[in-house]
Specification:
It contains 13 helices and 17 strands. Bound molecules: adenosine-5'-diphosphate and magnesium ion.
């Protein structure tokens, strides 16, 4: 277990917190402030317990230059509204300089300061020791609460912990607890549902999960690579050519490990990759040459729902079909709906799966929706995330 802000004395300390304020912006207006809201509990806790709080984050990909398109100024404004207090925005393009150091030195308990985009410095993504030291020099304690970047060893997520005591905020604590327990100590039966576009991206996740789950369910675009491995006709469906052999290996591995691996038994096909196209449902082994699979079929939905309702833990990553198109969203919706009704611990990882669940209005019916796409995948792969590894153990 990693220490959290609760496990250390933060009173009268300067605490530097790595947040994930990488919010979507359109013309300088934040279109979704979920990530800012998510950071509030940790910030409030620190303020209530007598800390002076220094916040830092990246935004977009300014590639090591002070590109003002990516300034955190809009975040400072929104954060101030949400917290109902002033935020000192230390707007230096160098992120840390003499002026910022002075401001940090003067910061009192109960005050909040936000640094400029850490990716304005090219040392950030290279985990440069000098920059990590500069950041550390501002504070007494480092708190990492940015799960979305915890899989990256950057100066502000990992390097800084070489110079300061490091603990997690509430967001990372929650992610480790839910994802960790689900994978390491699941209530059984444990079912994993994998979907999305490409198998290639998720081979190592599947390999790791095969060691843990009772049942592994496959859906989405990756199903056709498995079909190919089984020698089925897949028409014009998306295919991950270089992963066909691996898909075959995974099927064999599952059998050896005594894991039930289910692939869709029927497919909703379309003539073209668009919503308004001719559609028809085929058995998995009977797909026509001139159509593509765009969703799991109704028989598959029923089969998968049964698995969900008999499970005690379900981890889901990757949509079952092209859910962005209404006519091919049903499989993904039905799975989300079944998860929302089940009594199992339900964990959703992956950016698009999370977005799908949100768009169906079912988010608050899940046990946990991970906020980190790439980070949650690496966690499910069984990798230790650098931004978590650097935190002190309890
Ligand atoms: P996540 O972000 O949840 O990890 P992925 O990024 O792996 O999920 O995959 C999501 C994408 O997969 C979606 O954009 C969806 O349209 C696409 N997808 C799902 N099924 C198919 C399919 N049959 N053909 C093509 N694309 C698909
Ligand atoms: Mg995705």
């Amino acid at each position: 277990m990693k220490k959290t802000v609760r496990d250390i004395d933060v009173k009268d300390k300067k605490v530097i917190v790595r947040c994930d304020f990488n919010v979507p912006l359109k013309d300088d207006v934040i279109t979704d402030d979920t990530r800012i809201r998510a950071a509030i509990p940790t910030i409030e806790y620190l303020l209530q317990n007598g800390s002076a709080v220094i916040l830092m984050s990246h935004l977009g990909r300014p590639e090591g230059r002070a590109d003002m398109k990516y300034t955190l100024e809009p975040v400072a404004r929104r954060l101030s509204e949400l917290l109902g207090r002033d935020i000192i925005f230390a707007s230096s393009p160098a992120v840390v300089d003499e002026g910022v150091r002075e401001k940090a030195a003067e910061l009192r308990a109960g005050e909040v300061m936000l640094l400029e985009n850490v990716r304005f410095r090219k040392e950030e993504t290279k985990n440069g020791a000098e920059f990590a030291k500069e950041l550390a020099s501002l504070a007494d304690i480092f708190v990492n609460d940015a799960f979305g970047t915890a899989h990256r060893a950057h100066a502000s997520t990992a390097g800084i912990a070489d110079y300061l005591p490091a603990v997690s905020g509430f967001l990372i604590e929650k992610e480790i607890r839910f994802l960790g327990d689900a994978v390491e100590d699941p209530k059984r039966p444990f079912v994993a549902i994998m979907g999305g576009a490409k198998v290639g991206d998720k081979i190592s996740v599947i390999e790791n999960l095969l060691k843990k789950v009772d049942t592994l369910i496959i859906g989405g675009g990756m199903a056709y690579t498995f079909y190919k491995a089984l020698g089925y006709e897949i028409g014009t469906s998306i295919l991950d050519e270089k992963s066909v052999e691996l898909a075959g290996d995974l099927l064999k591995k599952a059998e050896k490990a005594g894991v039930r691996m289910l692939i869709p038994v029927d497919v909703v096909c379309g003539k073209e990759f668009k919503n308004d196209t001719d559609t028809a449902v085929f058995k998995s082994s009977e797909m026509p040459q001139d159509m593509m699979g765009l969703d799991i079929g109704p028989a598959t939905v029923e089969l998968y729902k049964k698995e969900i309702f008999s499970a005690k833990t379900v981890v889901w990553n990757g949509p079952m079909g092209v859910f962005e198109m209404e006519n091919f969203a049903r499989g993904t919706y039905e799975i989300a709906e079944a998860l929302s009704q089940s009594d199992a611990v339900t964990i959703i990882g992956g950016g698009d799966s999370a977005a799908a669940v949100e768009s169906f209005g079912l988010a608050d019916k899940m046990t946990h929706i991970s906020t980190g796409g790439g980070a949650s995948l690496e966690f499910l792969e069984g990798k230790e995330l650098p931004g978590v590894a650097v935190l002190e153990d309890k």
